[in-house]
Amino acid sequence: MNAVEFCALAQGRGINPFAATCQSALETGWWTSRLWLEAYNGAGLKAPWGWKGETLTVPSEECVGGRYKLKFSAFRKYPSPAAFLDDYAAKIKADYPESWESADNWPGYFAGLFRGRWGSWATDQAYLDKLVGMAVRLGPELLGDGWKGRMRLAVNLALQRGSLERWQEEAIDKCV
The whole model's pTM is what? Predict the structure, then answer.
């Protein structure tokens, strides 16, 4: 799997394909992690109580009280990347409505990951910085010529919509 293939597979699922690709590349180490290779889990989706599907238990670094700890967690296991993306899209729709509503705008999509029904997507305090860094790395490949201008337009749209909190705007402005 690579970024172009993942982004193409993410199209038409109600999510922002560029943002989902950035998140998956970050979460899986460019689709080389054990969680991806053995479970096609492209975003670290944990298996909640009552999960009916298969799981894979792996160690993951979690930030608890400002300190990072290694914790073993059960993650959802999928039969294919497409099955993962279907479940991921359903989770975004159900638990991260601001991301779902920003399917046309990657900065708004990223911002929505910090305002989910149960809180933030990740415990990592630098998660937004890492997502934006990945967006800058993948911009030329996935957005093509003029990628910097398109990224800036997306940031401006997110600002016009009021999607970004001040700290998010500052984090994005450092990179874009």
Answer: 0.92
